Amino acid sequence: MKIFCIGRNYVDHAKELNNxxxxxxxxxxxxxxxxxxxxxxxxxxxxTQDLHHEGEIVLRVCKNGxxxxxxxxxxxxxxxxxxxxFTARDVQERLKQKGQPWEIAKGFDGSAPLSKWVPLxxxxxxxxxxxxxxxxGQVVQNGQTADLIFPFDALIVHISRYFTLQKGDxxxxxxxxxxxxxxxxxxxEGFIEDQLLLHxxxx
Length: 203
Ligand code: ZN
Known about the structure:
Layout: E1 3-7, H1 11-16, E2 26-30, E3 35-36, E4 51-53, E5 55-61, E6 77-84, E7 87-88, H2 89-97, H3 103-106, E8 112-113, E9 118-119, E10 130-135, E11 138-144, H4 152-162, E12 170-172, E13 180-181, E14 187-192, E15 195-201
Parallel strand pairs: 1-12, 3-8
Antiparallel strand pairs: 1-2, 4-7, 4-13, 5-6, 5-12, 6-9, 10-11, 10-14, 14-15
Zinc ion (ZN) binds at residues 5, 54, 56, 85, 172, 174-175.
């Protein structure tokens, strides 16, 4: 099972971190040991002083495929979940300055809390999914997938040019604006279309 993640896939988020808007999807990966499921708590790592939340819609890959053509891309995912792409922003900044890969800033143990899956049939509009992240009861991130620079189908097409998609893979599709630090004691909650799906206590 592979966990793909997409960076800078919403214009407002690329701008808040002073990053250029990409001309093709920015892909990175997390290992399976990054996952935190069943609303288990997240333990703040000791190697960062600036851990950020990035609330994201996650796609579930339901079929094996490579070099998927655009007209068929929608057949390769069947559910979404709410995920957090936890990022050690201070570590990531150090690595970015040196032009080095950022795996340790984004792929560490526990860096990918994930909710249960919601089948696509249960969504009002698969092309415009509304989602929110609350921190301690306050909305900090508010997104809709109609604003994705590279929508779901484009991600399937792009990723499958380089990596064979396998059933069970997942794709963190990117975060909207509003990323920010979390502290021990914070509670994060992820919503898709007003449904509370993810509860993540930071310990
Ligand atoms: Zn992200």
